[in-house]
Amino acid sequence: MISGVTAHISAENGDIAETVLMPGDPLRAKWIAETYLTDPVCYSSVRNMYGFTGMFRGQRLSVQGSGMGMPSLSIYSHELLESYGVKTLIRVGSAGALTDKLNLREVVAASGATSESNLNRMRFNNLVEYAPVANFDLLRNAVDIANEQNKKIHVGPVLSGDVFYGDPPGLYKKLAEYGVLAVEMEAAELYTVAAKFGARALALVTISDNLVTDEHVSAEERQSSFADMVEIALEIAIR
Ligand SMILES: O=P(O)(O)O[C@H]1O[C@H](CO)[C@@H](O)[C@H]1O
Ligand SMILES: O=c1cc[nH]c(=O)[nH]1
Fold this sequence. Notes:
Bound molecules: 1-O-phosphono-alpha-D-ribofuranose, uracil
Distance between the termini: 26 Å
Oligomer: single chain
């Protein structure tokens, strides 16, 4: 049902494009809209969780903040897909590397997302460990586009954690041994909600912290370090 105006987004029917970039931070949404889109219009500022629509190289695109953590992203992605006819969601987030093989500012495309969250246990009545995965076409485009743009991209699974402060004892090390590249807080729910609505989703993340080497991108540098990832995401969005 495409109805417009939901509990958390005040856009009218037709205000939001079919493809939406989703950063966690609403100010990153504003920065993306003002930096990359032509004639951006803010369609919602409910709870200061900004959403904008504008043009990128002749195509309509939207950018919507998701907030931090899966319950918040779940609300925004659900409303975009159910009430605004959105078909493609591309997360543009930050993450902490779980291996010293990833450098600060590098981009990871999350092929899948494991999580300690209870959301999918509830959804599937504890009967299965649902495996949230990226849309293959978006993932393939991410790799092709990064190569065309001469940008380094890593592809692999991430952890979508519920806890920012505190590694559940030994968990990060164990996950890294099983190939999990980085920890962020939304991809698993993004992939699951997109699957529920038959939509396409991909999570790209920029490494802002390395939890093994204890390196961190400074608060001032965080915005500019996102440019590579956002430029890949924008190209995916119009391809
Ligand atoms: O930079 P964003 O997109 O918010 O993503 C990461 O940053 C937040 C934690 O600081 C969490 O939302 C995590 O997933
Ligand atoms: O969830 C996140 C995001 C960035 N850096 C982290 O260490 N964790």
